[in-house]
Design goal:
The protein is an alpha/beta fold and 915 residues long. The chain contains 28 helices and 32 strands. An eight-stranded mixed β-sheet has the order 9-8-10-11-12-15-16-17, sandwiched between helices. Helix 9 (285-305) crosses helix 10, helix 20 (669-676) crosses helix 21 and helix 26 packs across helix 27 (844-856). The termini are far apart.
């Protein structure tokens, strides 16, 4: 399109404009600009009068003919054509004739060498180089703050606007990925490629009229969740109608950029940043640029020639040059935005010496709700919109009013939490009769309580989704794929992954982890050996039967020898009351008493006096001491022997033997720990695990625990300490072996560069400081409201105590000894009573009755020997203990001789009783 200008007082030359078919919006902006310019009516006011022609195709020959026709008719400037043509013939002709060439669209390169050829060309489209820097600032900083992303670009787009982005990151898996597409392509292929790349951040460079169609296909591929983010680089995205896609399925953040609209006075100055109120009908970039370039040219003419008339243009395709064109171009390049009438449609219209607009303001806005987020220019960079308002007004910023679309878009965040079923972290809740659970209430466990608590502190919703394969997440080098929870996070099917998921370096290459919520190690789970059988006479086991028999024989033999030696020794005979006789102290009974007490080390009230007897006794005491101490030592060893059963005490013992198989979860972090370790012992353990037949690796912890329980000591399972403690507390036939090794950490997995990871970190640290994590561990790992296993030797686990079952034989011997002593005592009592009845010539029953009556009077300590006589046959007092020989003779004695004989017989009887 072309336009010429002249004085109203001069002859009316009609400027000419040519449009391509289909550029009705540009024609509208052109007419609006002419109308606004002609509406101004001061003296010496210029008047623009356009004539329109239409070009049906891009033909450089026709375009040259039209340009020459305009130049020959004395036009003062040529506008366009748009980028629909690839020819630069107009640039060349204008530079040959000195006629200003006004451009409003990107056309050609912005290098100094190229621009120096087109001195008379002015382009008010934003500089590509500066716009590229703006894109880089937007992507690197808030609100996007991307680390990796995919660029999806329509192949006809100019990638020069991405030059800073392409230079920022390398092209590899963790950097930038480029995916081209065409307008007529099947967009499902585009989104399948993006989804397979597992990228959540997508920069889309395409015409505005394609934006809705592109995003509709993204909805079908589940790429529009609240955790996906898009950035549309086209400056006309605000005209695309993306707001029509707002729904429950479209929750993504969609950011775009546009030239910041000018807000006219008298309410505000050009530097104002408040919302302009009503929207202008001229909205697209090309429309705004046509309007602005006409206003720029009009004001340049006025400031250059006012009040003098404009010199008539003399250039043509046949020759000639308009000298005044140079002054108009210089004025346009130095034009200040202030005092411009009519006002520009965009802010900050400033050109560099090459005639390129390299200084402008950009709006960075939410394309779904049309809310400005930041403002950018090359001098100040990216400035948050709220900060800009606060600095301009110097007043607190009031919250901006949100529309219905904003309320739909800013819903409470809802996370999908991928997990796997496994005790005690995530389990299906049993439903009582008549009760049915829905949603998250169906589950229970450690991680369920943890996520519930985090959601309360961080204010988010969530839904648990157990992974179909019930795996943690391991990499298969054959298929080059991940599985389990990690795969769900990589495929954008979940935003969190939590269970007993170990933080490993391999997993961290594809997902991120929060700070750990549990620290642990690896330990061996093994079946507990059966307790030793409790024998009745277990206390006799330190010595063999032969030893006990030899000891008894030694006691009897030594006692007999002791009696024989004593009979040879005069010193062991003691005098009696009768001066004509002596009595041997060491009877067999006393000798046995001495030797048994020596073994028992309790001493004896009778000791030998002869030298050889003492020497004999000394050597016996040495023997007895050695036997007693040997018994005690053996008894102690025997007591603790049951606690030292088994040859497996640690991993080293397990690896060195070949009778017991051992394994761990296949594809888990523990198997990865062994397979990737540089320690020879761990590598040897891994190699043995892989060679066992049947396979020693299990699919989960439960299978490994069941295998240990049913293997009867032929299989050991290696697993994390919290899981081991959980199972060992609930299965009394299991026990841990050795100390934990290989420190590990459990954390919550999130997608790479997830913005909410820092919030989760803060939440986990807060719960740890409050003691909530310890409470969860105590509840789910150690207690869980179930009856825990108690050690069979409760209170004697250190081997320092013995229970009654172990010592029942000792008590049985005690009972037996007491019983035998009581029987002997009763027999002696009856025998003594019988003797006393015979002596006193009374009936035995009467004597037994008297003895029993005396027995019941336990407070009487002296027993009269005359209590067995009949009443009247004795004059001895009841309490007398005098011997019968001193008792007064009865008055009925017949002779002294008989009395003496009777006394002698009584003395002999009493002496025999004492013995």
């Amino acid at each position: 399109m072309y336009v010429a200008g002249h004085r109203r007082t001069s002859p009316r030359r009609l400027p000419r404009a040519i449009f391509f078919k289909g550029e009705s919006e540009l024609e509208l902006a052109f007419d609006t600009a002419i109308q606004d310019i002609n509406y101004l009516n001061p003296e010496y006011q210029l008047e623009f009068n356009p004539i329109k022609r239409y070009l049906s195709e891009d033909d450089s020959i026709i375009l040259q003919e039209m340009a020459c026709d305009l130049l020959n008719n004395g036009v003062a400037a040529i506008i366009g054509p748009s980028s629909a043509t690839k020819s630069d013939i107009v640039n060349v002709l204008c530079n040959l004739t000195g006629i200003p060439h006004l451009q409003f669209d990107w056309n050609g390169e912005e290098t100094d060498m190229v621009q120096s050829k087109y001195f008379y060309t002015i382009n008010v489209a934003p500089s590509v180089n500066v716009l590229s820097q703006a894109y880089l600032d937007i992507v690197k900083n808030n609100p996007l703050n991307w680390k990796t992303f995919t660029i999806a670009y329509e192949t006809s787009s100019d990638l020069s606007r991405m030059q800073h982005l392409l230079a920022w990151k390398q092209f590899h898996k963790s950097g930038i990925k480029l995916i081209p597409f065409n307008r007529n392509d099947d967009l499902r292929i585009l989104w399948k490629l993006i989804k397979n790349s597992r990228e959540r951040n997508v920069l889309i460079d395409c015409p505005a009229d394609m934006a809705v169609g592109v995003m509709q296909e993204a909805i079908n591929f589940n790429m529009t969740t609240s955790f996906n983010s898009f950035f549309f680089t086209n400056l006309d995205t605000h005209t695309s109608g993306l707001q029509s896609l707002i729904s429950d399925k479209f929750l993504s953040n969609v950011t775009s950029v546009r030239l910041r609209s000018y807000i006219p006075p008298p309410q505000h100055s050009e530097t104002d940043v408040f919302d302009p109120g009503e929207k202008d009908s001229i909205r697209s970039l090309k429309q705004q640029n046509i309007y602005d370039v006409l206003v720029l040219y009009y004001n340049a003419l006025q400031q250059t020639f006012q009040p003098d008339p404009i010199p008539p243009p003399e250039g043509s395709c046949m020759g000639g040059f308009w000298e005044s064109g140079n002054d108009v171009i210089d004025r346009m390049k130095k034009m200040n935005s202030k005092h411009i009438e009519p006002h520009y449609k965009t802010q900050k219209m400033l050109l560099n010496p090459h005639g390129i607009r390299d200084d402008f303001n950009l709006d960075i806005y939410d394309a779904m709700i049309d809310e400005t987020l930041s403002v950018w220019n090359k001098n100040h960079g990216l400035v948050p919109y709220d900060h800009l308002i606060a600095n301009m007004t110097r007043k607190p910023v009031k919250p901006r009013k949100k529309g219905d679309d904003a309320e739909k878009q800013k819903k409470k965040v809802k996370y999908t939490v991928a997990t796997r079923i496994g005790e005690p972290y995530f389990m299906i809740r049993e439903e009582p009769e008549g009760v049915h659970f829905e949603g998250n209430d169906r589950f229970k466990g450690y991680v369920v309580d943890l996520i519930f608590e985090l959601s309360k502190d961080l204010h988010f919703d969530f839904v648990f989704e157990p992974v179909p394969d019930n795996k943690y997440g391991s990499y298969d080098p054959v298929t080059n794929e991940w599985d389990g929870i990690v795969r769900q996070l990589m495929d954008n099917q979940a935003q969190m992954g939590i269970c007993d998921l170990t933080i490993t370096q391999e997993r961290r290459t594809v997902v991120d982890f929060t700070v750990p919520f549990m620290q642990l190690g690896v330990q061996i789970l093994y079946s507990k050996p059966p307790p030793p059988k409790k024998e009745l006479f277990q206390f006799l086991e330190p010595f063999s039967v032969e030893v006990w028999l030899c000891l008894l024989i030694a006691l009897l033999l030594m006692s007999l020898i002791y009696v024989l030696l004593a009979r040879f020794t005069p010193e062991e005979w003691q005098p009696q009351d009768d001066p004509n006789s002596v009595q041997l102290v060491w009877s067999l009974r006393n000798s046995l008493h001495l030797h048994i007490n020596s073994v028992l080390q309790v001493g004896c009230d009778i000791l030998p006096t002869a030298n050889h007897m003492r020497l004999f006794t000394t050597f016996w005491w040495i023997f007895a001491l050695l036997m007693a101490q040997t018994y005690l030592a053996k008894m102690t060893s025997f007591i603790t022997a049951s606690k030292m059963d088994g040859t497996i005490q640690n991993l080293h013992d397990l690896v060195q033997q070949n009778k017991i198989q051992f394994g761990t979860i296949k594809g888990g972090s523990t198997s990865q720990f062994f397979s990737e370790s540089n320690e020879s012992e761990y590598r040897l353990a891994w190699n043995k695990m892989r060679t066992f037949k049947p396979e020693a690796l299990t699919k989960d912890n439960k299978e490994g625990v069941d295998r240990v329980r049913h293997s009867k000591g032929r299989y050991a399972f290696l697993l994390e300490t919290p899981n081991l403690q959980y199972y060992a507390k609930r299965h009394c036939d299991l026990m841990p072996i050795g100390d934990p090794f290989g420190e590990k950490l459990y954390g919550i997995a999130v997608p790479l560069n997830a913005p909410y990871r820092s919030e989760l970190n803060v939440g986990i640290l807060k719960l740890s400081e409050q003691g909530f994590l310890y409470k969860l561990k105590r509840e789910w790992i150690f207690n869980n409201n179930t009856v825990l296993c108690e050690d069979e030797h409760s209170g004697s686990q250190d081997g320092s105590q013995m229970d009654m079952e172990t010592l029942r034989g000792v008590f049985l011997v005690l009972q037996l000894g007491i019983g035998v002593a009581l029987v002997i005592g009763v027999v002696e009592f009856i025998w003594y009573t019988y003797k006393m009845a015979a002596r006193d010539r009374i009936h035995p029953k009467e004597a037994l009755k008297k003895d029993f009556q005396f027995f019941l009077r336990f407070w009487i300590e002296r027993k009269p020997l005359t209590m067995y006589k009949r009443h009247g046959s004795s004059i001895q007092s009841k309490g007398s203990l005098l011997p019968a020989s001193t008792t007064t003779a009865t008055t009925g004695s017949t002779s002294t001789e008989k009395q003496k004989k009777k006394v002698k017989r009584r003395k002999r009887g009493e002496q025999s009783e004492r013995e």
